[in-house]
Amino acid sequence: MKTVRLNNGVVMPAVGFGIYQIVPCDTERAVSEALEVGYRMIDTASSYFNEREVGNAVRGSGIKREELFITTKLWVQDYEYDDALRAFDRSMAQLGLDYIDLYLLHKPYGNYYAAWRAVERLYKEGCIRAIGVTSFSSERLQDLFLHNEVKPMVNQLETHPFFQQKEANEFLKREGIQHEAWAPFAEGKKDIFANPVIKAIAARHGKTAGNVILRWLNQRGVVVIPKSVHPERMVENLSIFDFTLTDAEMQAISALDEGRSPIYDDMDLATTRAIGTLKIHD
User: Fold this and answer.
1) Largest Cα–Cα separation, the chain
2) Annotated catalytic sites, by residue?
3) pLDDT at 1 over 90
4) CB atoms within 10 A of CB 173
5) Using 50, 70 and 90 to split pLDDT, how confident is the model at 280?
């Protein structure tokens, strides 16, 4: 497995297993199968409601804990300082683990300054190996690290051929913050797997469209967390290190960028209200 080194020296797999929208009753099986076929990074969140099932799969895998990289996330509802500390304890109890490898603030709304300072404390205490954020614009991310002690190690952004985050990618590289892609397949929107540019490149390499998308992200230095509940697709999504896209192929995919999300707009007022006020527990 190819890895990346975060700005604090922690080593992170370049490909992980995402479990957003996998229902709890399927999660333990899916994670167990992913671990069996070779994944060592699992990405969950308190708002996915499947941390307990992830923990069960991890403990049942027989794999040494130090060989695994487990990510979970803090929801906006718990962004006040003391709430964040309590929410972390709940996630630890659900997962049944002694530490978290990567802990992320899930969205850039609410009192994320207080949340970040709570997460900094947990990081300094050794409960978390690396900390970061999800879906933060470069402006909000820069503002966050300019006025706090610990610079985020990761920003997890919606990133795929139709929304390539080119400026954000360059900013993150300059600042030494790892770019990680959520929804690397655009959640299947715009018929991405049938895109003629991507399909033609895949045919030349004897690969699938999904392989090409993940390899394109990998060659841009972006960590990926594709999701699947099918073991054969899990294996396929790991099979991206035995070929290389040419500069011309990278440019052809680059030309697909539309500069906006086909999923939702984080800056849309209705979206920010809905996400910013969503409660995941009493």
Assistant:
1) 54
2) 48
3) no
4) 13
5) very high
pLDDT tens digit sequence for 188-200 = 999 999 999 999 9
What is the structure's pLDDT at 38? Answer: 97
Average pLDDT, rounded, for the chain: 97
Q: What CATH number was assigned to the domain covering residues 3-277?
A: 3.20.20.100
Q: How much is the pLDDT for 267? A: 85
- Encoded tokens for 149: 């002690």
The token pair at 246 is 């040419």
Burial of 214 (0-12, 13-18, 19+ CB in 10 A): buried
